[in-house]
Amino acid sequence: MESLVRLGRPFIDGAVDAALLLRQLTDITGRGRDFYQQVFVVEIHPDDVYVHPYRQWGEKIQQGKKEEFIPDLSLAVAAPVLIATGGNPKVAQGRYGVPAFPYFDHNQLDSVDRAQSFLKSRLDKTFNGEQYVPMISPIAEKLAKAVAEAPESKGLVLLCDLRSDGSAFSCEDPADDDNMISIGTCYSGTNRIWADLEWILDKLWWAKLEEGAEYGRSSEALCSFCHDTGEVVSLYSKAWPWYSITWTAPISSELDKHALHEEVALCQHCYAALSYGGKLFADLSSFLPPQILQEAFKGNVQSKSKSTPPPVRGAAFVLPVLDYMMEDREFLDSFLSGLRKMRERVPGSGSDRLLDQVVGFDALLPEEFAKDAYRLTLIYYTQENADVQLWAVIEDVLPSALAILHDEVHLELKSYADQLEVPYVLRIPALLARAYGSGYLWQSLTHVMRLESPGRERFIHRVAQDLQDAAKSALHGGNFWVLQDTAKFYLIFSRFLYVLDTMGDSHASKGGQFVRTWQELQAMANGDPENMHFDDNVEDLGYVMGHLVKRFSQQFYNTTKKEYLSSRIMTFGTDLTPDVAGLKALGKIEELSLKLNIHLPQQFRQRVGATLNEFLRQIDTVRKERDAFMAAFWAGYALYDLGRPPKEEKISEAATL
User: Fold this and answer.
1) Distance of alpha carbon 22 from the chain centroid
2) Distances from the Cα of 185 to the Cα of 177, 191, 287, angstroms
3) Is a pLDDT exceeding 50 seen at residue 654?
4) Predicted TM-score (pTM) of this structure
5) Contact at 8 Å (CB) between 5 and 268?
6) What's the CA gap between 507 and 515, in Å, rounded?
């Protein structure tokens, strides 16, 4: 909450004009935009009321196969709407700064009684609503008739009180029109109706403060955030679901429901800052793609099924390390410019970075925030009406760390994946979820955002088991593609940890040994036997062994029409252990080739012999690092053909062996 107050404060302190604040603070560009399809303007004069025929404040635009309504924001700011996040949306909720009342269907207004009930319930919660009460009956009578004649649609009723100065609207041309806009011609046809945006903004703040006061107010108390003394209210807001009174866990049971300001109290200025910060946070939020959620919630008990994970959102916002830096005008302008870009998510220059493949959701890191004078906060959460569940909060993320992850780590990873012919988009959260499993995603993501390796032990254990299962399935008639895909993932994530772990001495290393690139290992498995050096690395050894066994199994199949491992080694569906892989799968190649008269090139025999000797030399280490060895073995076996030269070149190569 304190971060959101800090986030909104620079905007509230006069950094932007009234029209822009009204657009950013309300729902006129989001959930409330459809209400401007049908706007009934009601003129209230001392002796009569006039209901204009409905008007459409905006236009429908074809977006692909869908038609969307885009409101005219220059008019909509005169009748801003805020949609509550919980409760029955057709019932009057919260407070109304100006009498602009959205309706969902004509059933709410198409008779005099319903129109009266609709207006009265909302005017009771409107600033100076009592001044409209004597006019409710004539307004309801004319409004019900106008609504009944209009086509069915969502819409809005705007009451323009032209009787006195105590209203946002008038029919007199303003002397200063900086914050005055015309919303149409008066019913008489001689003047225009003007709306005072400063007045509307001021009453919008009143409405928000009154919502907070509904659950606690004191005329003299200390603000929990700025520590100034004065009038304070509770944190409650209808449009801000993160402090819901329906979820009582963070609220002391000792407190009276209408004295919540005794727990967290906000002065008017901090409440306004929180309102803006909360709306900006919502605008910066976006959903994580299904690919990440499928991995993140695989087998998670909180998911109904694998195909319906909860819709998780992510948001990233930036704050300066020290607030006093905002006193510098140049720094403040840069901060506001950067946040504007983050909100629009449109790169303005080559130095702006789109972070979706790093953090998992749509986010932009503008060049203004490239300096480490700022810190980022990443929040992952689910929200259903007023029910908000936090999945992860990652604070104090350095912009430079995100830049490195974007410019170096992910770029290297993408290049490596292209060489492995991986067809899908790589997103770091999806890789972490697949590598470590549900329950470890957010913990490992926190490490990565700080350029720390999450460690290799759990990843190796999981991927070795996955490869073993995929191999058994493939050897008994299953899809070999699954084994290849798992093997490519093993290589990609190993590369990811390697790059992350070797970024510099300043970054902590929690990794173990890393395999060389697959091209280097393929070259060693196909090259001069005298140049086979494994450097005591069991994963390099396992990969080369898998490669050699797969090569022999192809010749074995050509001779016997049987699969080598399933028919001779992994009989009765047993797992392949390091001893079986070395002593039987590799160790029996020479014997079987002589027995079955399978021609093996001399250099291949020498490579098998050299690898077998290395296996026997390292057998104790291999047994100790069983998962790492077997993961690499299956990767070498599954990717035997990867990067092989075309058929013509293979014939030429075989002739030289």
Assistant:
1) 26
2) 16, 6, 43
3) no
4) 0.79
5) no
6) 20
